[in-house]
Each structure stands twice: as structure tokens, then as C-alpha cells.
Amino acid sequence: MKAIGNTYLLFAAFYVAFTTSITAQQDVYLSNASFEGQPDDATIPVGWFACTHSTTPDILPGPWGVYQEATEGDTYMGLITRGDGTFESVGQRLPKAIKAKECYKFSLDLAHSDTYAGYNKPIKLRIWLGQQKCEKGQLIAETDFIQHLDFRKYQFQFNAKKDWNYIIIEAYYKDGRFSHQGNILIDNFSAIKLCNRA
Question: Splitting the chain (198 residues) into consecutive groups of 10 residues, what average pLDDT does each group show?
């Protein structure tokens, strides 16, 4: 009886380790998820590409009078909206697809600067998934107006409607109108994990 019990425990441990490993392989890790790079204005972080013609994000702190400390690594990214209706967004191809009908979760750290060279009003952040570069196929996250100057963690959960290969991070005002000069600071984008993962 003791031998049977030990065999069962060994099998159970193997099963848990195996299923945990398989599930972990489905986690999606973004390239340069903490937006590391040499602090500079009008610079897209390595691993990301522009998704609007007028996108010139900044790698911070330092440029434009923004000096909050990063929460992960040394730098983070700033995106703005402008008074002429233009806004900034960046994207990247995912290293593995988000799978349809699965539940996923992720987090990232957000803040606002009140000294961003005149682009000082609070704005929102939206995150999209798509099947093509810069395609807005499914909105998976939208924040309220970010007004706090310290970085705070925001957590999101979504159910994928389709298989998705691309992600977009977008500065956003409201109602489709990007009509004021605002900013949002972004750092420490977590892995995108299945909801049943710790």
C-alpha cells in the first residue's frame, strides 16, 4: 500500500510539473517590455515600431523635463497626444500568437508627468491586438485618465476573439478626438499569461 501511495505521489508531481511547463510555454513575452534604451527624444525603443505617421515617442527620464524613476530597468517610454488631433502609438509582432477563445491577463506600470514640455494634460492608454502590423482588431485594455505622477501597476484581463499576432500601445484622449496636449508614461509590461497562471 505504501509503494502504491508513493507511486501515486510521484505521478501527481510529474503531472503538475508537466502541465505547468506546457502552460508556461504559452506565456507571451514582449520584446523590450520595459522600454530600455538611451534616454532621448523622438526615439522609438528597440523592439517596437511606429503605428501612426506622427509617432515620435521619447525614452525617459531626462528629455523634456521628465524625471520620474523607472520601475523596471533604467528607462521607460513616453507617448503624447497633440492639440492638432495627432497622437502616438507603437506596436510589435508577438513572439507567439495569442490564441482565440483563451483568457489572458497582463499588467504594466503607468504614470503622468506635469512637466512634459507643455504636453502636460492627463490622457488615457489603450492597447489593441491585431493580425496585421498596426491593425486594431481587438481592444484589450483602456484606462481612465492617468493623473498620478508616481508609477502605479495596472492589471488587465481579456478573452481573445481570434488568434492575434501583433500588439499596439496607443496614447488616447476620448471619443475618437485627440484634442489636447497630454502625455502618458509606460514601463514594465508583464508577460501576457493565461488566466489560470499565477
Answer: 54 43 73 98 97 94 96 98 92 98 98 96 97 98 97 98 98 73 97 89
Residue 105's domain is classified under what CATH number?
2.60.120.260
The burial of 102, by beta-carbon neighbours within 10 Å (0-12 exposed, 13-18 middle, 19 or more buried), is given as: middle
Instruction: Specify whether the CB–CB gap between 185 and 62 falls below 8 A.
Output: no
The pTM of this model reads: 0.86
Nearest to 117 by CA among 75, 171, 80, 146: 80
Q: How many domains does the chain have?
A: 1
- The span from the CA of 189 to the CA of 51, in Å, is 18
For the CA atoms of 113, 117, 123, 124, the dihedral, rounded to the nearest 10 degrees, stands at -70
